[in-house]
Design a protein that fits this description.
This protein is an alpha/beta fold. It has 12 helices and 12 strands. Helix 6 links the parallel strand 5 and strand 6. Helix 1 crosses helix 3 and helix 9 packs parallel to helix 10.
């Protein structure tokens, strides 16, 4: 079975609400939908994402360019992954090219699992199981966050992650305490600074939050400041979470060597797709680090089932407005779809409406 063609479709996917962060607001998610067709008739689906609409054409072109290098190759995802790494060795696989690789790799594995008639997790030798799920939202002040917490409880999540990084620490603390009061003791609260603080300010704010009962504090400083992350992790009792910006398994390996966090949460795209995730999960297992996911809820659900140290699945449903099947969340857990591959089927009418 060989790769016959690959279609790329740039869209601005609708969201239930805008995602506000310390560095800007995402009101629609720029995605490149990827459809891999084989000469046996199987079609694998996935998507790549970029936060800025201005970069969507560049991402679409990067995916299409890598796709052109795969036409006619056997549908053997690990071999195709290795082929692309060799072809791009001089340029490297970071930034948009790494993002394109991750999205394309997910679509290839989806086609591979569909051809076997199995969900991806089962095709990888694991079984489907419920995953502890948290609701991931944007930046909300102490007043607005109460309604978000109530919505989280009503939707049946086990946890809520809010963005922080207000101009003052007092605003951060007020939002955290308001959310904790609204959630009660049975629902976890995580916070994400999205790399918005300097090291001295991060140390001060994180220490001041250390007794607030948080599940974790995420990315207080620049993602590649491994020394700074290590210093913060050493100073806190609250777990420090990083990983969504690991560009390939090598960066995760470096972070583990630097003791830069207590937890890891690779992004299925940035880590270079399913192939990169499997290597990352082996690194987490060897290091004894709980491993969560970042966005890409469809692929992440399958991959976490095959991850020995699986911890939490993040639910920020970037493609939900274009997808047929709703997520299945009950009693705090997300149940992966028991359908071949990753489980993505596009609503073509909605894709056409939101196509760029």
């Amino acid at each position: 079975m060989k790769i016959a063609s690959i279609r790329t479709t740039p869209v601005l996917a609708p969201l239930p609400r805008a995602v506000r962060t310390a560095s800007g607001t995402i009101d629609r998610f720029p995605l490149v939908l990827i459809d891999v067709s084989t000469d046996s008739g199987w079609v694998g689906r996935a998507y790549a994402q970029v936060y800025l609409p201005e970069l969507l054409p560049a991402l679409e072109r990067a995916v299409a360019s890598l796709a052109d290098m795969t036409i006619g190759l056997p549908l053997a995802p690990r071999d195709v992954h290795a082929h692309l790494l060799r072809r791009c060795r001089l340029f490297g696989m970071k930034g948009l090219l790494g993002v394109a690789l991750g999205g394309l790799d997910m679509a290839l594995w989806d086609a591979w699992a569909r051809a076997r008639g199995e969900p991806l997790a089962r095709a990888l030798g694991a079984e489907l199981r419920p995953l502890r799920a948290y609701h991931s939202v944007g930046l909300y002040d102490a007043t607005a966050v109460v309604a978000i917490a109530q919505e989280t409880l009503a939707a049946g999540f086990s946890g809520l992650k809010i963005k922080v990084g207000f101009p003052t620490f007092a605003e951060d603390l007020a939002a955290v305490r308001a959310a904790k009061r609204a959630l009660g003791n049975s629902t976890a609260l995580m916070i994400d600074y999205n790399q918005s603080l300097t090291l001295p300010e991060a140390m001060a704010r994180c220490k001041a939050l250390d007794d607030e009962g948080l599940e974790w504090i995420e990315e207080p400083v620049l993602a590649d400041d491994l020394e700074g992350c290590a210093r913060i992790a050493e100073a806190l009792t609250t777990p420090l979470q990083i990983g969504e910006n690991f560009h390939g398994p090598a960066e995760m390996r470096a972070a583990i060597a630097a003791r830069a966090s207590d937890l890891v949460m690779p992004d299925a795209q940035f880590i270079h797709g399913v192939t990169g995730w499997l290597e990352a999960s082996a690194l987490a297992r060897t290091a004894g680090l709980p491993m969560s996911s970042h966005t890409f809820v469809e692929a992440s659900a399958q991959l976490l089932c095959a991850t020995p140290t699986a911890h939490w699945i993040e639910v920020l449903d970037a493609a939900g407005g274009l997808r047929h099947a709703p997520l299945n969340i009950k009693d705090g857990m997300l149940m992966p779809w028991d359908t071949p591959g990753i489980g993505l089927e596009w609503r073509e009418d909605r894709v056409a409406r939101h196509r760029v």
